[in-house]
Amino acid sequence: MGPLYGVFTALRQLIFSEGFPPKPQFEEKDVPDLSGKVYMITGGAGGIGLELAKILYSKNAKVYIAGRSVTNGTTAVNLIKNEYPKSDGGLEFLQLDLSDLTTIKPAVEKFLESEKRLDALVHNAGVMAAPTDWRTEQGWDIQLGTNVAGPFVLQRHLQPILMETAKFAPKDSVRVVFLSSISAHIAPEGGVDYANIESKGTLTLSMFAGIDSILKYAQSKCANVLMAKAYAQKFKDSGVIAVAPNPGNLKTDLTRHNPIAGALMSFFLYAPRYGALTELYSVASPEIDQSKNGSVVVPWGRIGPMRQDIIDNCEKGGALKLWDLMEEQTLGF
Q1: What does the UniProt keyword field contain (predicted)?
Q2: Which of 39, 57, 64, 217 is catalytic?
Q3: Which residue of the set 58, 87, 180, 220 is catalytic?
Q4: Taking Cα atoms as reference points, which of 275, 282, 248 lies closest to residue 121?
Q5: What proportions of the chain, in percent to the nearest 5, are helix, strand and coil?
Q6: Are 322 and 226 in contact (CB under 8 A)?
Q7: Measured between alpha carbons, how far is 68 from 249 in angstroms, rounded to an integer?
Q8: Which of 18, 112, 257, 290 is the most buried (most CB within 10 A)?
């Protein structure tokens, strides 16, 4: 499979399915009261994460907005509380930085001091089209580090409470959401370049910096598809379900590092609320059960397709190979 095949696949999905989705079939009105349930959303201070936090809080859930900026997090908490003054839910900001793995364990320990359950973990935060020389504190390519390595470490620390919650929560209701993108369709053959992953994403995928950045973003988002599929294989008896949604093409600040990409995509962009509905379906729809574990979700809440070579690689152990690589490279955090 050559790179043009991935581009063709992405364009086909953009034009015929994921770019112009049908009307949402699962919305706020379809969500029951969530009193007593606890959710964590990374990057929940803005964009679709903020919109998802609003919906869950409006249904009386307790929502943790996890992110770097105390100012942005506090602003988001106050904004949501003012918008939904009748909610009996809870809202907390949890400070952590996915680009600095040393911040994650302390944040989780703080969370566990207050909570005995976690009904869904939404790995929503991400970086797109960043300069290729940007690195995380531990030397990862900024996109692979923020979009995959940081969420992987967060997932590892929260896995015990998710599994414990699945023992008493309604069947199939405990979820993990690894956020993907339509760009996953242009990822390397099989989904990821394992040599690139072993280099913490620092090896180039293209000699042209702009294309390299786009391909690394695509790889990071396809890696999240592999993470969901590996999770479904590795923890199939845990009662926790993992999915990898493409939230849709949305008007957020995700393209802030690449204004040209933002301008080109502007014709296909929708309000952030629609992306939140894709995530809401992933988190709360009763349609998702063990038979959908490891699935890809497409806008605005449907089980969707993925490139056949990526599916084949996962079925041959490629997803678990990526999981094991991430485990090895994040030991000690």
Answers
A1: NADP, Oxidoreductase
A2: 217
A3: 180
A4: 282
A5: 50, 10, 35
A6: yes
A7: 24
A8: 18
Q: What letters, b where the CB count within 10 A reaches 16 and e where it falls short, cover 58-76?
A: bbbbbbbbbbbeeebbeeb
Cα separation, 231 vs 218, in Å, equals 20
- The confidence score (pLDDT) of residue 269 equals 84
For residue 28, the 8-state DSSP code is G
Q: What is the mean pLDDT of residues 274-286?
A: 98
pLDDT digits (tens, 9 = 90+) for 78-119: 999 999 999 999 999 999 999 999 999 999 999 999 999 999
Sign for the CA dihedral angle at 158, 163, 169, 170 comes to positive
pLDDT of residue 72: 97
- Domain count across the chain: 1
Residue 140, preceding peptide bond in cis (omega within 30° of 0): no
Per this entry, what is the length of the chain? 333
Question: What is the pTM assigned to this prediction?
Answer: 0.93
Q: What would the pLDDT profile of 152-187 be if each residue is shown by its tens digit?
A: 999 999 999 999 999 999 999 999 999 999 999 999
Catalytic one among 59, 221, 292, 321?
Answer: 221
Specify whether 221 is catalytic. yes
Indicate if 217 belongs to the active site: yes
Active site residue 180: yes
What is the phi/psi pair of residue 183, to 5°?
Answer: -65, -15
Which residues span the domain enclosing 243?
Answer: 3-329
Residue 205 token pair: 């995928």
The label of the residue with tokens 């000699």 reads: 207
In one letter, which amino acid is 131? P
